[in-house]
Amino acid sequence: MPVSRRSFLHALSPAPAGPSSAFVAARGREAHAAEGASAPARRSAGVLLLDSNENPLGPGRAAMEALTRAFVDAGRYPTNARPSTADLREAIAHRVSVRPENVALGAGSWELLRSAVRLHASSARHLVTAAPTFEQPEKMAEQLGIGVRRVPVDKDGRIDLEATAQAARWAGLIFFCNPNNPTSTVHPARAVTEFVTRVRKESPDTAILIDEAYHDYVTDPGYATAVPLALEHPNVVVTRTLSKAYGMAGMRIGYAVGQPRAIENFNRWGITFNQNSLAVAAAVASLGDPAHIDAERARNTEARAFTTRFFQDLGCRVMDSQANFLFVETGRPAREFKEACARRGILVGRAFPPLDKSHARVSIGTVDEMQRAGVVIAEVLGAGRPVPAAASSPSRPPR
Ligand SMILES: Cc1ncc(COP(=O)(O)O)c(C=O)c1O
After folding, report:
1. Domain boundaries, the chain
2. Which atom of ligand 1 is nearest to the CA of 113?
3. Cβ atoms 32, 51 nearer than 8 A
4. Does 253 sit in the ligand 1 pocket, CB within 6 Å?
5. 3-class secondary-structure state, position 77
6. What is the pLDDT of residue 384?
């Protein structure tokens, strides 16, 4: 049946009361009705996706409603659409308390991490990174033939700031992920400031990229964003993403914050129109709804505590998570654990050398999802160990 523009827009427009049809189509009635419901795509596939540190509930209501409204402007380049990329920079600047000229946009923060390597490292000036940490910067360096110094994390999974500072001499770029993916741990504000001050003094030409992809999930009172350091120092930059707490991983919005010169450099390397106007509309709406992020943090904190207890009851050591995933000492190779879980319908994180023989990363879904996952994980790890009470009575049977 042919679909007219009018009937298409009618189908998308919000209903006067209750959720819009687009909201329901995208997230399902349960997602609207219950915080604990999982996303419909995952449910219908019957597989639990606990492998990519995504938000199990997807974008918030404000973002979904803005998306439906933005369809009429989809024919415009994102600089011309309403809201435009300039509006997005302004919304981010407002949210982070900086000026728009302190903000560069990326197609996810992934793009910005890769640009940072191009901008600051070279065959003469190496990249310093942690092991394990998020691998995109080192992958980019390897592609470009740039040397990489990997500094092992400490026994608690924290980035070793002392050893990183030592490795920084003559380096082009330090990649500092806080909280660190995959170990989930965070450094307090005081330690970050001391580290930046020391590197600036001992190796003033070395740039520092502080990746705060999981900033919105941190509950440690000692933590604070490094944005003030990025404003203060010419070669310190903070990156963030809307892929995690904002639930917009598929929409690809990331940003960097720094001094205007540093930001101009990112913009020079960025692809023209590296945003799309629908995602821009959703992002602007989401940034204007901070209560949704507070609620998402609270939801994740509860599910994180539940899942941490679950693993501890199984006898596994869990690193102190300040993110939406756990790094668990399962005592067996990550690949083996991942494959055993996958055969039972649960996808968990990949192997992270050098801790790939003993640790696994498990993303945190809803409590309901973690109860279902718990039954499978207890079976995989159990070998006779009891299934914890919380996981033994899932609200839905495992698939
Ligand atoms: C630490 C860290 N930084 C950056 C990213 C990239 O996120 P995106 O490109 O979706 O913004 C991820 C994704 O998982 C991550 O874990």
Report:
1. 70-287, 292-392
2. 4
3. no
4. no
5. coil
6. 47
Report the CATH fold assignment for 70-287: Aspartate Aminotransferase; domain 2 (3.40.640)
pLDDT given at position 45:
62
Are the CB atoms for 91 and 276 separated by under 8 Å?
A: no
Q: Which residues contact 75 (CB under 8 A, 6 or more apart)?
A: none
Q: Is the CB of 249 under 6 A from ligand 1?
A: yes
**Per the CATH hierarchy, to which homologous superfamily does domain 292-392 belong?**
Aspartate Aminotransferase, domain 1 (3.90.1150.10)
Residue type, position 361, single letter: R
| Per-residue pLDDT at 196 | 98
Distance 331 CA to ligand 1 centre (A): 27
Q: What is the CA(15)–ligand 1 centre distance, in A?
A: 35
Instruction: Quote the tokens at residue 325.
Output: 């995933």
pLDDT mean for each 10 residues of the chain (399 residues): 44 43 40 38 71 97 96 93 96 98 97 97 98 98 98 97 97 98 98 98 98 98 98 97 98 98 94 93 98 98 98 97 98 97 96 97 98 96 56 34
Q: Considering only CA atoms, which residue is closest to atom 12 of ligand 1? A: 213
**pLDDT for the residue numbered 382:** 83
The Å distance, Cα 215 to ligand 1 centre, comes to 11
Q: What is the pTM for the complete model shown?
A: 0.87
Kindly give the number of the ligand 1 atom that is closest to the alpha carbon of 107.
9
Element (H, E) at 105: strand 103-107
In this prediction, residue 313 carries a pLDDT of 96
Determine the pLDDT at residue 271.
87
Report which protein residue has its CA nearest ligand 1's atom 8. Answer: 108
Ligand 1 proximity of 109 Cβ (cutoff 6 Å):
yes
**CA quadruple 330, 334, 337, 338: dihedral positive or negative?**
positive
Query: Token pair for residue 277?
Result: 């106007």
| Helices 290-313 + 367-382 axis angle, to 10 | 20
Q: Measured from the CB, is residue 110 less than 6 Å from ligand 1? A: yes
State which ligand 1 atom lies nearest to the alpha carbon of 109.
11
User: Is there an atom of ligand 1 within 6 Å of 287 CB?
Assistant: no
Angle at alpha carbon of residue 138, lines to 358 and 198, rounded to 5°: 95
